[in-house]
Amino acid sequence: MATNKKSKNASSKQGKDNTPQQAQKTDDKAANLVKEEKKAPQSTAKNEKKTAKKSSDKSKEPNIFQKMVGFLKGVHHELRKVTWLTKDELIKKSGVVAGIVGIFTFLVWVVDSGLGALAALFMNI
């Protein structure tokens, strides 16, 4: 019923400029809208219960133990992708790191000693 009123309003808005072909197109559109409204399924209590059950099943989260097992499986999977160093590579690279740490330790000690001596010089004045 509402679509028929819409089509009448649309044709009355156009006034005298409305040709018979345009009127036919408007009527066809109105008929299609009526058919689409009839095709739409009406929700019933039974359909709503089914959808409620399906949504509640999907919304359940796994418990804490299932989450922990899933996490540990993921960790194991990622650790299998890691390329580990050989013993010789590990020794060489550890030596490089220890050397760089030693150099920076010495530089920080020099700067600290210099600033300490400079502060002592200003304090005695």
Automatic annotation (TrEMBL):
Tagged with keyword Transmembrane: yes
Give the source species.
Answer: Acetobacterium wieringae
Keyword line: Cell membrane, Membrane, Protein transport, Translocation, Transmembrane, Transmembrane helix, Transport
GO terms for molecular function, please? Answer: protein transmembrane transporter activity
Which Pfam families does the record associate with it? Answer: SecE
Family to which the UniProt record says this protein belongs? Belongs to the SecE/SEC61-gamma family.
Locations listed in the record: Cell membrane; Membrane
Q: Quote a single Gene Ontology cellular component term.
A: plasma membrane
What InterPro entries does UniProt report for this protein, alphabetically? SecE_bac, SecE_sf, Translocase_SecE/Sec61-g
- Spell out the Basic and acidic residues composition-biased ranges: 25-61
Report the function annotation for this chain.
Essential subunit of the Sec protein translocation channel SecYEG. Clamps together the 2 halves of SecY. May contact the channel plug during translocation.
| Region (Disordered), start-end ranges | 1-61
The transmembrane segments are: 96-123
Q: What gene codes for this chain?
A: secE
Please report the record's description of how this protein sits within the membrane: Single-pass membrane protein
Gene3D superfamilies xrefs: Preprotein translocase secy subunit (1.20.5.1030)
Per the annotation, which location comes first and is thus the protein's main one? membrane
Q: What is this protein called?
A: Protein translocase subunit SecE
One BP term from GO? protein transport by the Sec complex
Assembly, in brief, is: Component of the Sec protein translocase complex. Heterotrimer consisting of SecY, SecE and SecG subunits. The heterotrimers can form oligomers, although 1 heterotrimer is thought to be able to translocate proteins. Interacts with the ribosome. Interacts with SecDF, and other proteins may be involved. Interacts with SecA.
